[in-house]
Amino acid sequence: MSKDKTNLSRRNALRLIATTAAAVPVIGCSEKAAPKVELKQDKPATKPAVKNLDAPKQTLARGTPTDPDLLNPVVPWEMQLDARELAVLAALCDVIIPADEISPSASSVGAHHYINEYVSAPYSNNKADLVTIRGGVVWLEGESRRRFQGPFVELNESQKIAICEDIKWTRNAKPEFQAGARFFAKVRVLVSTAFYTTEEGMADIGYVGNRPMASFPGAPPEVLKRLGLES
Fold this sequence. Notes:
single chain; mainly alpha; globular; 231 residues; 8 helices
């Protein structure tokens, strides 16, 4: 979208949001992901039982939503979005987070595939978001053809931005653009989550966590100064 020198650019605003986010949204949340496991307790024996040291310990099955195998991740549900819908989302992802001199675009790190995985999850919130995303893609395609007589993926950058300017904030969008604005708001959150949890996205904001350190020198002086914590 258009940049104003007196305001934060869209990309810098997203970087700021990413650096202040305390947690990453988890796929699905409103329904129980797996049935509760209850272990039956045997009645005390009259004689102490001899402990079988060779018996395997009873554990929960790994790879379930409540106990994921992070070393061998799998997605247990079928993807719902088709190739046409993913192409439209990929183009929109790159309007929201385009490539720049620091990092690649959102679609190049698979942000649209993350959206597909998220909205395909079999939970009520995710199913509702699938309706929002699918309906939004239809709206975006219709608006593209109405304004520029072509599908969204074939529009040039200025044409794509012109449409997104009208739906970038739900509070400012005109009544006829409210459906598109709700769609854009959902995509913006999902794209930001996808991009800023990749190595490329973390490098984009200068994140240096998750790395072994022989020692910790403390917060940089400029950070302490900004927080008013200088000694």
